[in-house]
Amino acid sequence: MSLSSNRHGGDGGEVRASHILVKHQGSRRKASWKDPEGQVIKNTTRDSAVSQLKAFRDDIVSGKAKFEDIASRFSDCSSAKRGGDLGPFGRGQMQKPFEEATYALKVGEISDIVDTDSGVHIIMRTG
């Protein structure tokens, strides 16, 4: 029995995921490691961010690109340094839409577009 916060059984244990985040003008923090002044982010619409992510997802799913490579080059999250890897996390540690999308995936699956206060993401469950 693990001691993680597994309330009421079910799928409450920890998961592990990688993600690619594209920030846009509606994002809570309009700066990132690759855009410290937020010049690009402030001029990126949500629709444009979603289009970028859809293209990334298509390339990954079709085998043209690796998730980690796209994440390390294009993700606005500091996890880009680790190929998008967020490490293990449990319920209540991530924003709700992100958490729900991750727990709904099977290991190896990639989500559709997920909206949070941080921006838009695609998530790959890795554990």
TrEMBL record:
GO CC entries: cytosol; nucleus
Record's signal peptide: none
Alphabetized UniProt keyword annotations: Isomerase, Rotamase
Biased composition (Basic and acidic residues): 8-17
The protein's role, per its UniProt record: Prolyl cis/trans isomerase with specificity for phospho-Ser-Pro bonds.
Name the record gives this protein: Peptidyl-prolyl cis-trans isomerase
Reactions performed catalytically: [protein]-peptidylproline (omega=180) = [protein]-peptidylproline (omega=0)
Region Disordered: start-end pairs: 1-44
InterPro entries: PPIase_dom_sf (IPR046357), PPIase_Pin1 (IPR051370), PPIase_PpiC (IPR000297)
